[in-house]
Amino acid sequence: MRTARNVAAVGAATALLVGGTAAFGATASAAPNVTPQGVCGKAYKTVNSAPVGSLGTVYLTYNSANGKNCVATIRTNPGAAKSMSAYIYIPATDEWAGDDGSYTSYAGPGYVYGKGYCVSWGGSIGNVYVSVENSNCAALKEQRTTEIR
User: Fold this and answer.
1) How far apart are CA 11 and CA 18, in angstroms?
2) Is 35 helix (H, G, I), strand (E, B) or coil?
3) pTM check: above 0.70
4) What is the pLDDT of residue 32?
5) Closest by Cα among 19, 64, 14, 73 to 44
């Protein structure tokens, strides 16, 4: 009787361990399918983007229904948390939004009202920074800068 109870306990523990490993293994290895629309919202269409070296991309999106822009920095290969940022700024109104921290796949969203205005935006992953000034307006020429710090 005692042997049967021990065998049952070992069997239950093994099943729990194997099941737990399978559950955690699937979660840890699954790469999220992150898109600008997944970060900003379905109504936001990508209007511009800038590579952050080979590490990822900063996306500028726009929602024509509410006149808002959104920015998100998305890593090419999600993994261990890295320093990341995303920012957006409207010089004419002095309105800005941003996000920075240690993230595994993306930074953002940052939202501002941008209808009819030039937009400055950018982001970073690790030590690679990208900025786009005077974007998406006919009045000024866009200026892109990428730097490694």
Assistant:
1) 10
2) coil
3) yes
4) 60
5) 64
